[in-house]
Structure formats: C-alpha cells, structure tokens
C-alpha cells in the first residue's frame, strides 16, 4: 500500500527525532542504520527513501535537536539557563539534553557539513544568550559576545567532564556544583540577581 506524501514526511520527521535522541545518547558511531530504523519502527530498506546517507541524517538530526534545545530555554534568563544547563538532570539526560554537550567531541571528527551545522547552532545559542545578557550600557557588543562564548564553553565543558565520571561519583556532582557557582559568580550583579522565570 502506497503511503501519502504527508505520511512520508511524518515518517521522516519521526526517524530524525529518533536518530537525534540515539545519537545524543550513544554517539554517531554508537548506532547503525539498521538499529536506528528498528528503533523508529521501520525496516532498514526504508532508510534510503528518506536520506542519501547516514551523514545526511546526522546533519539533519543535529539541526533539529540544536533548534529544539534553543527553543526549550528561550524563556530563561542567563542565570536560569546556567542553572538548568549545568545540572545533574541535564548531565543524566544525555539522550534528551543539549546536542552540543552530547556530541561536540564526535562532531569534531565528522564532515565539514556537520561541523557547519554545529557552528550554526552555537552561533544561534550565543545570539540568544547575548540578547538576554544584562550589562551596563557602556559595555561593547564584543565584550558581551566574548562573555557568552566563555559562559557557553564553560557550561558545555562542565557537563562533558561530569559525564566522563561514573554516575555515582561524587566528582561528577562536584564538577557541576563548582562550575555552576563560578559561572554565576562571574556574571554582573544585574544578570546574576535577576529573578528566574518559571518553566
């Protein structure tokens, strides 16, 4: 039975969503096409009706999950973002967490296309954070951007280091606690003391 174009698009979106979660949880080399398609509820043969290669799916899945990560934090101020990002819940939720924290190390060894997708996601995240960053009127744009690059790199690194430790390790929690406190302490009082919006 032939499926409709609408159903085909829905199937593709489901495959992308499934791949996004599996890639974040196990890395790009940790899951093959057959297993990925089975997890999505389809046969391996259907993969190439939707994608030219696994690399194509990797890029599309990354773009999808980077966009969703950004939209999920759009209501938070900078301090709220740090508290959410550098947390045990995020650390433990690899498959549903930020793509950058889960896959930056893998992306560094992948194609230029995938790296470009990550660069776009990083730029979009930086722009969103910079827009919410409350600084004095005399602070230059370049200074705010540099601060957000530092903040994002620090937050991502904290999660990655914590995940490299055993789940029950006290060091895993210590890394998150120390880095979260240091990042927040480095923010101007006008940013760090703002009331956080509820999610």
UniProtKB/TrEMBL annotation:
Keywords: DNA-binding, Transcription, Transcription regulation. Residues 32-51 bind DNA. Residues 9-69 form the HTH tetR-type domain. It comes from the Bacteria. GO terms for molecular function: DNA binding. InterPro entries: Homeodomain-like_sf (IPR009057), HTH_TetR (IPR001647), Tet_transcr_reg_TetR-rel_C_sf (IPR036271). Pfam families: TetR_N. This is TetR family transcriptional regulator.
